[in-house]
Amino acid sequence: MTTQFKERRRITTKTLQEMKSSSHKISMLTAYDYTMAKIIDAGGADVILVGDSASNVMAGHETTLPITLDQMIYHASSVVRGAERAMVVVDLPFGSYQGNTKEALSSSIKIMKESGAHAVKLEGGDDVSDSIKRILLAGIPVMGHLGLIPQSIYKFGSYSVRAQEDAEAKKLIRDAEKLESAGVFALVLEKVPAKLAQKIAQSLSIPVIGIGAGNGCDGQILVSHDMFGMTHEFSPRFLRRYLNLYEEMKSAVNKYCIDVQKGDFPNNQEQY
After folding, report:
1. Nearest C-alpha neighbor of 145 from the set 176, 166, 174
2. Is 190 known to be catalytic?
3. Which tens digits make up the pLDDT trace of 224-272?
4. How far is C-alpha 235 from the chain's CA centre?
5. Catalytic, out of 114, 180, 190, 248
């Protein structure tokens, strides 16, 4: 990372725009608690997303749909306290903005006031553009999300790659342009063909962050629990595991249990 961006006290929407303009790739990871946020922030991530994926990796739900607005605020508050440099973006959960611009604004204000986060993210294209405009009127930055949108999983029926057919690809391009016109400061593209994602990234003036969208995007995001290897059942093509914490942590727990059972923990040096 260049000194220009590494020394920033706090990454902002302006910083991200400067990074795109200078062809400096943006790194983004999820976090849901204070300790993980501190580690990810210290590691140099530019943006931390408090994702509704907490519904999966933290709460054990099959989808992102069950997590509530208050639960998202709890996670976001913890992350904000742990992040000194990274910009913190919070997902608007399912049911807190769809089809109702007033509720979208109310949910966004509640997140910003109660968590201290710096921006919100929502899923959808032209159907949410009015909500985006209304949220922006309150001075709240909004990040968009297109492609595979997990809150609509029951509509799509699977987590397969989106926009492979010409008609859907054209709609994705139109939606991306409409979100930029509506005022989003950045856009996440999830699970779309790499060439299409690169075309969109090159055509928009705002940063485009990819997850399963190839290396032609302006930045990348992964779910931290997947990247650290804490989840081991989930192995999509786009995921690179930088650690295997599932096995390492399981081994540590096993050793602890053995030491306790043998009476080896605590030893004389570990007691008062």
Report:
1. 176
2. yes
3. 999 999 998 888 999 999 999 999 999 999 999 999 999 999 999 999 9
4. 18
5. 190
- Find how far residue 107's CA is from the centre of its chain: 18
Tens-digit pLDDT profile for residues 35-78 = 999 999 999 999 999 999 999 999 999 999 999 999 999 999 99
Q: How many residues does the chain have?
A: 272
Q: What is the pLDDT of residue 3?
A: 56
Q: How far is CA 177 from the centre of its chain?
A: 21
For Cα atoms 29, 199, 153, give the angle at the middle one, nearest 5 degrees: 55
Q: What would the two tokens of residue 249 be?
A: 């942590």
The answer to whether 198 touches 173, Cβ cutoff 8 Å, is no
Which residue ranges make up each domain of the chain? Answer: 3-241, 245-272
Regarding the domain delimited by 3-241, which CATH topology (the fold level of the hierarchy) does it fall under? TIM Barrel (3.20.20)
